[in-house]
Every structure is written in C-alpha cells, then in structure tokens.
TrEMBL record:
HAMAP family from the UniProt entry: Ribosomal_uS15_B
Source superkingdom: Bacteria
Function: Forms an intersubunit bridge (bridge B4) with the 23S rRNA of the 50S subunit in the ribosome.
Gene Ontology terms describing biological process: translation
Protein name as annotated: Small ribosomal subunit protein uS15
CDD domains recorded: Ribosomal_S15p_S13e
InterPro entries in the cross-refs: Ribosomal_uS15 (IPR000589), Ribosomal_uS15_bac-type (IPR005290), uS15_NS1_RNA-bd_sf (IPR009068)
C-alpha cells in the first residue's frame, strides 16, 4: 500500500521543517503513519495476507524507533507531532 505522489507531497508540505526538507524524522513518521493506516484497512478485508502483516509490523517498529528518537531530542516536538498525526504516542 504505497502512497501516490500527490499524497506524499501533501504530507511533506504539512510536516516539513524548512522549504527543502523532504526527509526529516517528522516527515518520515508522517509518511509511515499514513502507510500504516492504509495497510491496516487493507488487512481488515484480507485477513490471510500474512506478508503484508509482516510488513506492517516492521513499519510500526520503525515508526516507534523514530518517535523515540524525536522524544530523546525534544519532548515538545514529539508531543506536537503525535497530536498532529493523531496517534497515541
């Protein structure tokens, strides 16, 4: 469940730190969160898609590591990002 170019550009514009920012941790977490939500809805209808389930678990782990990195660096940025994306954190 990949994101199309328009969705990626919209996510980058809403989470970027400066004008040329496309790979900061905040942008990566936003993209992972969007992919996770798409894949979760796919798996609700396709319960025997075990390969996608494994990919989902890897994405969740990566997002968790990135969020812990943000939390170490700046707790306020972490809280703002979690609230902006709408995850529990």
């Amino acid at each position: 469940m990949s994101l199309d170019t328009a969705e990626k550009q919209k996510l980058i514009e809403t989470h970027q730190i400066h004008a040329t920012d496309t790979g900061s941790v905040e942008v990566q977490v936003a993209m992972l969160s969007k992919r996770i939500s798409k894949l979760s809805s796919h798996l609700q209808g396709n319960i025997h898609d075990f390969a996608s389930r494994q990919g989902l678990l890897k994405m969740i782990g990566k997002r968790k590591r990135l969020l812990s990195y943000i939390k170490e660096k700046n707790v306020q940025n972490y809280k703002d990002l979690v609230k902006k994306i709408g995850i529990r954190g």
